[in-house]
Design goal:
Chain B: This is 2Fe-2S iron-sulfur cluster binding domain-containing protein. Chain B: One of its GO terms (molecular function) is oxidoreductase activity. Chain B: Pfam families: Fer2_4. The complex is a heterodimer of chains A (466) and B (104). Chain A is an alpha/beta fold and 466 residues long. Chain A has three domains: 208 residues, FAD/NAD(P)-binding domain; 139 residues, 3-Layer(bba) Sandwich (FAD/NAD(P)-binding domain), CATH 3.50.50; 67 residues, Orthogonal Bundle (Arc Repressor Mutant, subunit A). Chain A has a six-stranded mixed beta sheet, covered by helices on one side. In chain A, β11, α5 and β12 form a beta-alpha-beta unit. The relative contact order of chain A is 0.14. Chain B is of the alpha+beta class. In chain B, strands 3-2-6-4-5 form a five-stranded mixed beta sheet, covered by helices on one side. The longest helix of chain B is centred in the middle third of the chain and has 8 residues. Chain B is globular, with a radius of gyration of 13 Å. The chains are: A alpha/beta (466), B alpha+beta (104). Chains A and B meet through β9, α4 and β10 of A and β1 and α2 of B.
Chain lengths: 466, 104
């Protein structure tokens, strides 16, 4: 099969902040990229657009000024996408050298590319807890998407637990829309927080101020905030009924609640990057594996990656990275005359600044991996296949040779289920590292396999027959 | 069955006004819905589960709500699979919580 000509339009996967910024740069240069997005509306996850059912709630939710800015941005994005080959509701479920596998309207299709930008974003990093598979427990990002896309609270009495800047933001957004029975359990140790605050203030005082003002807003609204909490268990028979935790002074407490949102920062969505040929490296500060990219986002001769899927830097950083990657792609496409080199230099500087801020913040928001060692063995680690922590711990001595996570996956099925390890992979790495006494970097990462999203059997068979 | 009576048995609490513009069903149970709602919003304000895990038989009700975990997978009666969090309601949509035999 021959590839498309070098004049073929560039392909962007993901219409979140990075993908949209890249699309904007291409459109300015008179090029109309193909933009593939799984959702029915553009915007991504963290910056997801509000469902039209809540159109009267934008001001209370975001404030008058921010909601006007959002409207303007969405209008700009709609204009850009009107000049692209924008394909909503399109799942990219596989990648091979020079091509992508798409599923749209129940049918599979190949798309060859000459220049590909992956802007696939991130999902919540999750650590398990006893009872976390009960109905009523959602990821922190999911709790926010429940508001913005599903127009719903996840419950009436909610515990937001874990660590992340998103922890306070999500709680505040629920609060602004009228929910009052909220408790925030922040697992960040106080000492780490102070150190990080100093580092963060150096790089982005504004962001730090925003965080503090969110906490003040929550306290004024009567929301309980517990710092340095140790999470113990979600309890309930058929759905969430209570949450148990230990406070900073070591006292155990049981909160009545009917929903829980948990999250421990973000992890990059990298399956497509891996299938498209990117190499990976472990970041010892952020403690996740990231695709190896150049400062401009290039990961291979025809491959660029930008946004949280390349380096976790939030929406603002994703916009810089998306635009910078598009400019680098324009140069590779022989359209360098459309690129101003001083703009690229400026974007690289801003990106480096955002990265330093992220690294400073990561010192506070360190994954409480040690929490896992205290959890009982019957705790479910892999929610898809219901593999327990105990089964994974027991598998480590059974694996021969250097133990790494893919061996443990093969023995236990942990990470083999329909989420493809997105929600157990972080904890699996921590547990295997602990059980083997090795560093997290040495136990490896779960390998990606196509299809990265389940596809209909009929479509897969048609594909295999071709 | 009014929407408000139904919502007391569900997990989700709608922030917008619910109304009956169309109907969808889960395992034969009819639920009123409004145009523009997602399937999961309608199902979880009426019910406390979206079926059971095929591994331990415990109730499941979604987790990531953004299409990544597949915990809210449902099937249409003709065997097609949907993610309740990524699908908008359509009148007459008939969904089941376990895959029809043809598609296991």
């Amino acid at each position: 099969m021959s590839g498309p000509s070098q004049d073929a339009p560039p392909v962007i996967v993901g219409a979140g902040p990075a993908g949209l910024a890249a699309a904007g740069a291409f459109v300015e240069a008179g090029i109309h990229p193909i933009v593939l997005d799984e959702s029915d509306r553009p915007g991504g996850q963290g910056t997801r657009r509000l469902t039209p059912l809540l159109c009267d709630k934008a001001e209370p939710l975001f404030g008058a000024r921010a909601s006007r800015r959002r409207q303007e941005r969405e209008a700009r994005e709609d204009h850009i996408l009107s000049l692209c080959d924008y394909r909503a509701n399109t799942v990219v479920w596989g990648a091979f050298d020079g091509g992508l596998e798409l599923l749209s309207g129940g049918a599979c299709q190949d798309l060859r590319y000459a220049h590909l930008l992956l802007a696939t974003g991130a999902t919540d990093a999750i650590l398990p807890l006893p009872g976390w598979t009960l109905p009523g427990v959602y990821s922190l990002g999911g709790a926010q998407v429940a508001l913005k896309r599903h127009g719903s609270f996840i419950g009436r009495k909610i515990v937001f637990a874990g660590f992340s800047p998103l922890l306070y933001l999500a709680a505040a957004q629920y609060c602004r829309l009228g929910l009052r029975e909220i408790t925030v359990l922040d697992t960040t140790p106080l000492r780490g927080k102070l150190h990080a605050a100093i580092g963060m203030a150096r790089y982005a005082a504004g962001t730090l101020r925003q965080g503090l003002s969110l906490m003040a807003e929550l306290r004024r609204a009567g929301v309980r905030i517990r710092a340095a909490a140790e999470l113990l268990a979600v309890e309930g028979k058929d759905h969430v009924e209570a949450f148990r935790f230990r406070d900073a002074a070591g006292r155990e407490e049981r909160l009545d609640c009917d929903a829980v949102a948990i999250g421990f920062g973000l992890r990059p969505e990298t399956q497509l990057a891996e299938l498209a040929g990117a190499a990976f490296e472990f970041d010892p500060v952020l403690r996740h594996w990231f695709p190896r990219v150049s400062p401009d986002g290039q990961a291979g001769p025809a491959l660029w990656i930008a946004g949280d899927g390349a380096r976790t830097m939030g929406a603002e950083g994703a916009r810089f990275a998306g635009r910078l990657a598009a400019l680098s792609m324009l140069q590779a496409m022989g359209r360098g005359e459309a690129v101003k080199s001083d703009e690229m230099r400026r974007l690289r500087r801003r990106l480096e600044h955002a990265r330093r801020f992220q690294l400073a913040a990561a010192k506070a928001f360190r994954l409480p991996g040690e929490m896992l060692s205290r959890l009982p063995g019957e705790t479910v680690l892999c929610r898809c296949e219901r593999v327990t922590l105990g089964e994974v711990r027991a598998a480590v001595p059974r694996a021969s040779g250097p133990v790494e996570v893919n061996r443990v996956k093969a023995i236990t099925r942990c990470g083999m289920g329909r989420c493809q390890g997105r929600y157990c992979g972080v904890a699996l790495g921590e547990v295997v590292a602990e059980a083997t006494g090795r560093d997290l970097a040495e136990v490896g990462r779960l390998r990606a396999q196509a299809p990265i999203r389940p596809i209909p059997m009929s479509a897969a068979m048609r594909d295999a027959a071709e | 069955m009014t929407a408000s009576a139904a919502s007391s048995s569900g997990l989700f609490v709608p922030i917008y006004e619910v109304s009956t513009e169309l109907f969808i069903s889960l395992d034969g149970l009819r639920m009123p819905a409004r145009r523009g709602e997602t399937v999961i919003a309608v199902l979880l304000r009426n019910a406390a589960a979206l079926g059971r895990s095929e591994f331990d038989g415990r109730s499941r009700a979604g987790f990531c709500l953004m299409g990544a975990c597949q915990d809210c997978s449902l099937w249409s009666e003709d065997g097609g699979r949907i993610r309740a969090c990524m699908t908008m309601v359509e009148d007459g949509m008939a969904l089941v919580t376990a895959p029809p035999l043809a598609e296991t």
